[in-house]
Amino acid sequence: MKKSMYLTALLFAISNLMFAQIGGIEDSVNDVSDTIRSIFPIILGVIFLIGFLFNAGHFFGENADLKKGITRVLVFVLIAGAVVGIFTYLITIVV
């Protein structure tokens, strides 16, 4: 009987320690998530700017090809939109 009481007390103490650790991890994850949410629009803007600069050669100059330039910009926008959509979905998941 004493062994089962000791075992019960030990399991109860361990479970309380595990719940305390989960709370600390959740706070740090929320801090990292808030930081990423604030930085992500800036990173996305820089990526769009770089993508436009790489594709600007198709719109201007001697070898301007409007169709090729528009196609590349649309593909770039679709890929960036998919990345934003996936990122937004991952942020909305509650930890």
Describe the structure.
By secondary structure, this protein is an all-alpha fold. It has 2 helices and no strands. It has helices spanning 2-55, 66-92. The chain is rod-shaped, with a radius of gyration of 26 Å. The relative contact order is 0.08. The mean pLDDT is 74.
Distance between the termini: 40 Å
Number of strands: 0
**What are the low-pLDDT stretches, counting only 5+ consecutive residues below 50?**
none
Portion of residues in beta strands equals: under 5%
Q: Can you give the mean pLDDT?
A: 74
- Which class best fits the helix and strand makeup? mainly alpha
What overall form do the CA principal axes indicate? rod-shaped
- Provide the succession of SSEs: HH
**Tally of individual helices:** 2
Please give the largest β-sheet: none
Helix fraction by DSSP (H/I, runs of at least 4): over 70%
The whole-angstrom Rg is 26 Å
Keywords for this structure?
85% helix, rod-shaped, 2 helices, mainly alpha, 95 residues
Give a nutshell description of this structure.
With 95 residues, this protein is mainly α. 85% of the residues lie in helices and 0% in strands.
